[in-house]
Amino acid sequence: MVNALTNNKWESIPKENLQLGAETFAYETGLYETFRTLNHHPVFLEPHLDRLFNSAKLTQLKIEYTQQEIWEMIQEIIEKSPNPNQRVRILAVPKKLILYTSSLELSHLIYKGVSVITVETNRVHPEIKTTDYRTCLTAWKSANDSRCFEAILMDKNGILFEGSRSNIFWIINKKLFTRKRDVLPGITRQTIINRSSFPVEFGILKKSGISKIDECFLTNSGSGIIPV
Questions:
Q1: Which single residue of 98, 110, 114, 164 could bond 139 by disulfide (Cβ 3.0 to 4.6 Å)?
Q2: Which of 8, 156, 149, 146 lies closest to 76 in space, CA to CA?
Q3: Model-level pTM?
Q4: pLDDT on residue 124
Q5: What pLDDT is attached to residue 38?
Q6: Can you tell me whether residue 5 is helix, strand or coil?
Q7: Which among 47, 191, 165 has a CA at the least distance from the CA of 110?
Q8: What's the longest Cα–Cα distance across the chain?
């Protein structure tokens, strides 16, 4: 069971009901955000909330609480956990807002470099973190079955878009590239674009062109920057 704040009231929810993309997931229509804490402080919470409310506007999902009210709920669940470094999830579904945390278990080996696979598939609305997660979960399971960290989604022409749980960057001749559109506007991705010491350009990377790049890395809010 998972201790969660549902509409600002504590309740216990079966863990399997909160597993995105699984058959047991109880909330197929909705949105979600995931971020981490560092020493009990939420990391980049404001842009995560901004993205949540923007997605709600695009999908016409009514969120019954203000950003400030959600911020206060998040502080409550973070402080309740003894673990200073947590993974926090917000689920916004019709007539419900569910907040819960889990321990942030990261292997430091990933920062030495990870392996990835490519999967030919696409997300219908890549700009929105929807709870309809089956496409990404299926791709990630393929990566896991291949003992890889991540699956990179690509179209039938071999154009790479993003990871099932991450954004992708690549470097050519000391220039940093990432896709401009048709990908999730990741919070860590945007932070890198804003703060990079390298010139940043938007581009297209094909599977056939991987051998021509100098470096590649993934980003997400839980793990940060992961070299490939």
A1: 164
A2: 8
A3: 0.93
A4: 85
A5: 95
A6: strand
A7: 165
A8: 53
Dist CA 31 CA 129 (whole Å): 6
Domains of the chain: 2-103 (3.30.470.10), 108-227 (3.20.10.10)
Tell me the C-alpha distance between 170 and 153, whole Å. 15
Radius of gyration of the chain (CA): 18
Return averaged pLDDT per consecutive 10 residues of the chain, 228 residues in all: 96 91 76 96 98 96 97 97 95 95 93 98 90 90 97 98 98 97 97 95 97 98 97
Cα–Cα dist 228/117, whole Å = 11
Q: Is the dihedral of CA 33, 150, 24, 2 positive or negative?
A: negative
Cβ-Cβ contacts under 8 Å for 63 (sequence gap 6 or more): 52, 53, 56, 70, 92, 97
Three-state helix/strand/coil letters over 80-108: HCCCCCEEEEEEEECCEEEEEEEECCCCH
